[in-house]
Design a protein that fits this description.
The structure is a single chain. By secondary structure, the protein is an alpha/beta fold. 35% of the residues lie in helices and 23% in strands. The chain has a six-stranded mixed β-sheet with strand order 2-3-1-4-5-6, with helices on both faces. A three-stranded mixed β-sheet has the order 7-8-9. Helix 6 packs across helix 8. The radius of gyration is 20 Å and the shape is globular.
Length: 295
């Protein structure tokens, strides 16, 4: 008998959802940085064995939207509540359990199995952890609670074993050799965006979007042209940096990561363009792949 199902990962920003996703899938599919709002899309990672297929979904952190892009990010998170066979709700040892009650109330009403994962347990004591588990048990009485450390891979194998037990009997949803639902270009833009998140601070990373204009793969190498969009001329100057040094550094770091990801030499050209207020424009968000998955 073959098992298959959708296991969706939700939770507030910065609790370690993307790190967990990468550990479960065994590949670097979601960009994971120390900054909140790193994940903007819903990204699938597919784990296959002979008798099983788990389709994991990483989602943006749940937040109260301030502009259209964040509305779309919240919609991705809420869509994950609707098609899950198993829901993984990730929290950590420092966040306040009542932080996002509106979303939590939706989770409380769910009839599918919910596993609540208390992440980063290496940053707490046994006593603190006991109090956290108790608190969560009162908020989500039907959820199974598992303490984990995604970064150190503690508890991940136990979680995987439990997911396998909960999966419904079903034929696979995707080809058995498929690793994700996203095309290669998506990972190029995500990897470039990750380097921008790591290299620039303040609001710059949140004002940036990356679009791949050209992705030409041959047997020997891959040629990529990518455009980094910002909202203002001043941001363009910061991204490029003095004599182009900042952009050069980001491009070099991105190229190295892309070579590792695709296992081929990469020729990467990056350009910076201003696209005023793209985060608030339906048309632009649609072009960047952010439209509401529920509409």
């Amino acid at each position: 008998m073959h098992k298959a199902g959708f296991v969706n990962i939700v939770g507030n920003p910065n609790v370690g959802k993307s790190t967990l996703m990468n550990q479960l899938v065994g590949e670097r599919i979601s960009i994971a940085t120390f900054k909140a709002q790193t994940t903007r899309h819903r990204i699938m990672g597919i784990v296959n064995t002979d008798d099983m297929q788990i389709v994991f979904s990483d989602t943006p952190g749940v937040l109260k939207p301030n502009y259209k892009l964040q509305e779309s990010m919240l919609a991705f998170s809420e869509s994950a509540l609707q098609d899950a066979d198993v829901l993984l709700y990730v929290t950590d040892v420092v966040e306040t359990p009542e932080k996002n009650m509106e979303f939590l109330e939706k989770v409380q009403k769910m009839t599918i199995p919910v596993i609540l994962l208390v992440n980063k347990i290496d940053e707490s004591t046994q006593q603190q952890l006991g109090a956290i588990v108790e608190k969560w048990h009162s908020l989500l009485p039907n959820a199974e609670i598992l303490p984990i450390s995604a970064k150190n891979k503690f508890g991940v194998d136990m979680l995987l074993k439990r997911i396998k037990e909960l999966l419904p009997d079903s034929p696979p949803f995707f080809d058995k050799d498929q690793l994700t639902d996203k095309p290669a270009r998506f990972f190029v833009s995500e990897i470039i965006r990750e380097k921008i998140l790591l290299y620039y601070d303040k609001e710059i990373p949140y004002s940036v979007e990356v679009r791949v204009e050209r992705f030409k793969e041959t047997e020997k190498n891959i040629h990529i042209n990518a455009i980094i969009y910002v909202e203002r001329d001043s941001q363009k100057g910061i991204i490029i940096g003095h004599q182009g040094m900042a952009l050069k550094k980001v491009s070099t770091e991105a190229r190295k990561a892309l070579e590792k990801f695709f296992d081929k030499p990469i020729f990467l050209e990056t350009f910076v363009k201003v696209d005023k207020d793209w985060r608030s424009s339906d048309k632009e968000l649609n072009i960047f792949g952010y439209m509401d998955p529920l509409s």
